[in-house]
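Homework help board

Subject: predicted structure for assignment chain

Our instructor gave us this sequence and asked us to write out the predicted structure in token form, then describe one feature. I got the tokens but I'm not sure how to describe them. Can anyone check?
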Amino acid sequence: MIRAGQYAWVATLTLGVSLHALLLGACGETPPTEGENTHGMFGTGGTGGEPLPTGGVGGAAGAGGEPLPTGGVGGAAGAGATGGAGGEGATGGTAGTGGTGGAGGSGGAAPTSDCGDADCWTYMGYDQHSTYHNPNETKITVQNVAMLEPMWTTLTSGSATGTAAVVGDTVFFHASAGTQAFNRATGQERWKVNLGGSGSITWDGGKVYAQRFSGQMIRIDGVAGGTTEWATVVAGNASIGTPIIVGDKAIVGTSSGDEVAGGTSSFRGSVVALDKDTGEILWRHYTVDPPSNGAAVWSSPSVDADLGMGFFTSGNNYSGPSSGRSDAIFALDLDTGDLLWSFQATANDVWNVNAGTGPDHDFGANPILFEAGGKKLVGAGSKSGTFYALDRETGTMVWTRSITAGCAAGGILNNGAYDGTRIYATSWACAGPAALVAMDPATGSVLWSKSMPAQSWAPITVANGVLFVPANTTMQAFDASNGTLLFDYETEGSICSGAVVVDGQVFFGSGFPPSHIGNFGGAKDGNVLHALALP
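My token output:
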């Protein structure tokens, strides 16, 4: 077993108060900084050298190197400042009437802007089908995965709960208190923006997108030194979904902490599509109609671009009358946001921390798109402990498989994976130990099952016949064909971050803040990003 080194964080254990559907590696955030910009597009910069006023919506700053005052989230710097020794130079942006910004400093190479022919990982679930399967991985195998060793570790800006994006020579990470870019070879920080969240980061064409815990969607220039380009509020609080990029749209689900506040709530879960270049909201689809509430979209989207369909899951109602679209898998038209079909797995599920008669059997996992038996299917597991597979075009049930008893803490809590041969899922220890199972995608038959030593807080990843599955603070690897344990790597913090496997390397964070509304199992905090590689 490989043990990680010493990390700069304080571990704390606590029991949380929420039993909501904790998302797939989307686990926590610190409160936003006072004075921070929380809405709207960023305007065009003024005369070069002029600072942003307090509370303003900033445009591009003037001469490179000017600090931003409290209140504004600034645009791109103007003339590029010379980088410090060993630093990472960034490309200067346009400086309003102050002239065109110059090239970045000479401290180091800027991140690459696209994948080219190289392997990369750009979305939480790897692809638009949320398979968590990298079919291009060839270096890590069942035979050599036990040889993985630490390449580097580095500190993240707050709890390291998200799933990374890896493109070219750069690792992008969305932690609870900031979004960062790191040199892939060394772990050296390239840039940081003090806008964090508990979801994961999405990369597209040199831009990175994320949703903050406050419900603010942001876009950052991932190449030009981490310049924030726009920010748009899409939800109120405790929103943890990861956006997916489809054509000119960034699409994300919304959630709320009202479930743990108790009492009545006006919150309604929704799916929001934004113009990816401007941040303008193009359409919004609500999961319920008043007077019903809740039905949060804790999970992240999956897309069939050929069919023009997006797929989503919803949680329970919080109070008041139940609705027919809570605890559901549903499909929307990507162009309009119109509902195409909805399948409700658990009816009459009304629950909050103080009251409710329902079992709290949310869907917290992304829908997985897969094909079996000549059919295009969509499937997801819920906290009832059951995995549901539906016809992708009609929403008709094809098969179900109960793999564990259900409970409010979560029967199937996090994302599974699909590699073209098997569907993989983990269960919470509602009754008996937590389990890892492999299912036949055509029938749902369990092909093998293995007891886990601890709860898995994060998604499963599969690559080249190897499963990467966290068990609380330990990252484990298994033979996907039979469940044989191949590798252990111990960390100090609980692993909420899905493993990103790219070109013989593995990246993931560890740390789950005890104050987070989803920490109902005593998980440990931490702020470390791990990079493993073959020798």
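Reply (TA_rk): Your tokens look well-formed. For the description, you could write something like this. The chain has one helix and 33 strands. That's the kind of observation they're looking for.
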